Each structure stands twice: as C-alpha cells, then as structure tokens.
Amino acid sequence: MSYSVGQVSAFAGVTVRTLHHYDKAGLLSPSGRSRTGYRLYSDADLARLQQILFYRELGFTLDEITEIVKDPETNALEYLTARQRQLSEEIARLQQLAEVAERAIEVQRTGVSLTPQERFEVFGEITFDLSYATEAELKWADSEGQRESMARAAAHTKEDWRQLMGEAAAWRAELLAAFDEGEPADGQRATDLAEEHRLHISRWFTSCPPDMHRRIADDFAADPRAFALVVPPSRQRPGLAAYLRKAVHANAARHAGGRTGSEEE
C-alpha cells in the first residue's frame, strides 16, 4: 500500500514538516509518487520511519541515525551500546539531582531551617525520610498537635536543635544500655526512659499525653523509617523498637494507674 504525507503524519505522530526534513536530509524519502506527483510512502518506508523514530526516542542525532540505518548490522550494536552507557550515566546524574531536590523538600516539610552543613553537624546519623515525613503529614494533617509540632520545629534555632539533639543522644545511650543489659521493658528503668522521651517531645515539639505517646511508639515498632528518627540504623538492635514500644505502653499504663484497656503487647 501507499500513503500520503498527511496520512503518515497523522498515524505516526510526526509533523509534515518533520517528514519533509527527513526527506531533505536523505534520511527517509518517499519511494513512490502519485499520478499527480504527490509523494507516497510504502510499507517499507513506514518500517524505516518506525526505526528512525525509535532511535530518535533514544536521543540519537539525525547524523547518527543516518549512519545506523545505512548499515544497521555493522553500526546498530555499537551505537546502542554507547547510548546505553550514556543513559546509565545520565540516570545516575539525575538520581543525584533528585536526591538533592528531595533533601531540599525535606527541609521544607520538616521545618528544619538549617544549612546542609549545619544539619550534618546537628543531626549526624539521624535522618528524616521524606516518604515517611510526607505520610506522617498526611496522616496527622487534621491534628492540632502535628501543626504545633511543625510550627515549633520551624522556629527552632541551630542552638535549639543542638540542645535537643544532645538530649536525644544522651537518652538514646541510656536506652541502648538498658536494652543491652537485659533490663525488662516494663521495669522501672525502661519506663522511666519512656517517660523521659515523652517529656522531651512535649518540651520541644508538642504536648504529648500518654495515649499520643503510645501511638508514636506503635509507629516506631511498625515502620523502620519512624524508628530511624530516634535510633539510627547503625546503632539499632533486633527487637529494640519493640522493646521501646513495650516500655512506652507500660509507662502509659503507669500514668493510668495500671489500667491497660485493650493494649496489645
């Protein structure tokens, strides 16, 4: 069958101007003519056009495509191998840019108004996972406590962050020591540490009654991204998140005078 320029333009998704350009460049010339002199494309021409569009999608220049289609058996593999390597390098570069953008968005979402260097100095290994921060923001969007926490975090100075992270580091060391020494999660030492953590949240972010603290601890045990906010992965132990959750629940029960309700252990 034969097809006019307009027909090919319509079903191939390219402009008539592009087809004229391919013709002028000697890349794809219609192999037929109508009785009235209009150019007509054959099925073989369409196959060649499909090949050209494939290589264009991969980012090849017209000169490179011309070289490939002249002798595809000789040139295609070499060009495709080189292009695959270039695309892999570009993907890696774009991934780095995406990570930079993610960190910039992270700063906005977490309200931590520090430079990258200051963030490293203050937070060290503690990281804010953007996906978790986003989910938490959506989950608690209607919570007054979440709004207060974000507002107070945004208002903290570098020295505020340095102080609160120092407190958190000291508390974390005590938690790890209690866990490593086999202290029971519902014992005095562990529940006192749970209470200290609850008061830390109230002091620096938002009022944290025992019920809220239990929900936070549930997140620690269920989501590694949440637990990484208090204990970096390099310092975690198997079972530590569950240990902290149990201590927090025991502390909440202590506040309630021993009434545990429907708490799950």
From TrEMBL:
<keyword id="KW-0804">Transcription</keyword>
<dbReference type="InterPro" id="IPR036244">
    <property type="entry name" value="TipA-like_antibiotic-bd"/>
</dbReference>
<keyword id="KW-0010">Activator</keyword>
<dbReference type="InterPro" id="IPR047057">
    <property type="entry name" value="MerR_fam"/>
</dbReference>
<dbReference type="InterPro" id="IPR000551">
    <property type="entry name" value="MerR-type_HTH_dom"/>
</dbReference>
<feature type="domain" description="HTH merR-type">
    <location>
        <begin position="1"/>
        <end position="71"/>
    </location>
</feature>
<dbReference type="InterPro" id="IPR009061">
    <property type="entry name" value="DNA-bd_dom_put_sf"/>
</dbReference>
<dbReference type="GO" id="GO:0003700">
    <property type="term" value="F:DNA-binding transcription factor activity"/>
</dbReference>
<keyword id="KW-0175">Coiled coil</keyword>
<dbReference type="Pfam" id="PF13411">
    <property type="entry name" value="MerR_1"/>
</dbReference>
<feature type="coiled-coil region">
    <location>
        <begin position="77"/>
        <end position="104"/>
    </location>
</feature>
<dbReference type="InterPro" id="IPR012925">
    <property type="entry name" value="TipAS_dom"/>
</dbReference>
<keyword id="KW-0238">DNA-binding</keyword>
<keyword id="KW-0805">Transcription regulation</keyword>
<dbReference type="GO" id="GO:0003677">
    <property type="term" value="F:DNA binding"/>
</dbReference>
<protein>
    <submittedName>
        <fullName>Transcriptional regulator</fullName>
    </submittedName>
</protein>
<dbReference type="Pfam" id="PF07739">
    <property type="entry name" value="TipAS"/>
</dbReference>
